[in-house]
Amino acid sequence: MYEGRTDAESGIIFGHENMGIIEKVGQGVTTRREGDRVVLPFNVACGYCDNCRAGKTAFCLTVNAPGAGGAYGYVGMGPYSGGQAEYLRVPFADFNCVPLPPGEQHEDDFALLADSFPTGYHATELAGIRPGQTVAVYGAGPVGLMAACSAMLKGASRVFVVDKVSERLKLAERIGAEPIDFTRGDPAGQIKEALSSAGVDRGIDAVGYQATVAEGEEQPAVVLNQLIDTVRPTGAMGTVGLYLPSDPGAPSQDAANGRLLINIGTFFEKGLRMGTGQADAKRYAHQLRDLIIAGRAEPSFVVSQRLPLSQAPDAYARFDKREAGYSKVLLRPALGR
Ligand SMILES: NC(=O)c1ccc[n+]([C@@H]2O[C@H](COP(=O)([O-])OP(=O)(O)OC[C@H]3O[C@@H](n4cnc5c(N)ncnc54)[C@H](O)[C@@H]3O)[C@@H](O)[C@H]2O)c1
Ligand SMILES: [Zn+2]
Predict the structure, then answer these.
(1) What is the pTM of this model?
(2) 315 within domain boundaries
(3) What confidence category does residue 60 fall into, taking pLDDT thresholds of 50, 70 and 90?
(4) Residue 77: CATH number of its domain
(5) 3 state SS of 234
(6) Among 32, 150, 164, 218, which has the highest number of CB atoms less than 10 A from its own CB?
């Protein structure tokens, strides 16, 4: 949206990763109170439709066009404003608010429950990671790092994290993953060599359609194809990196219409499986919160900055360039007012 790669209209209020203190409660809300600290997994959902009842809250059937799902401040995901503002309205608040303990403890960790942590965890669910398995995560942004962290929580034996941004690869190393710099040679080859095998059991795409090759050129299918190469025959892939049905800034006409050249022949021949889609963040947020409270997970290791809203324009520009020191920025609308 920031880069003009969607049809987002000027004036849209961004901010789909929100947490805060409840200021006021509407008449239809029964379980939340003024003063509660809450985090809001990014999918706005009703809680009562078929998909919500099945835990597929990213595909709520009533808050937007059927199946499209809702989110705060997100183009194509309904009329809900985002949280990069002093106040935020939360529809179906009983369902959409995940309660947090009072006080300020774990503030940065809990902020990650709005998106990156449950999305990373969702990737491990889509890939079906089980204890002892080997895992390759493409992308060491907040989502990829959270996927690596979640794979470890699930007992993966070895986790490789692929990127080219050295600061991000260092964060991966800090949590016990093995960094793979894709500018130093074919990442699938590097991983197979490290394993002395035909590939990892499970692969995760935490990059999406804005994937680049080592030289920097954008090639939207490159990570999907590298994963098909990296995962062993009969393994599985979890794709949470974003792919869109239309992309005005795409490098080719096909890609502009969401059509990519995927090595489907190899995918079939190897008997691979792939899960995709927006993450059902609300499905996991309560359990992941409890892992944070119990001291078993500390996702705030990705947070690099805490800034007032007034500094958001500068922070956006720097994050967009993947500058060092901008792995994850927390904006505090009330800070410095
Ligand atoms: N499915 C969902 O619900 C969901 C939720 C949140 C984010 N996302 C998507 O997940 C993706 C990652 O999000 P993020 O916040 O971590 O983004 P990010 O842009 O910070 O991270 C992406 C990383 O991928 C790296 N990269 C680029 N090309 C690569 C390649 N060929 N191989 C390996 N790494 C490569 C970049 O250097 C960058 O560090 C985005 O597409 C985002 O839109 C999806
Ligand atoms: Zn619903």
Answers:
(1) 0.97
(2) no
(3) very high
(4) 3.90.180.10
(5) strand
(6) 150
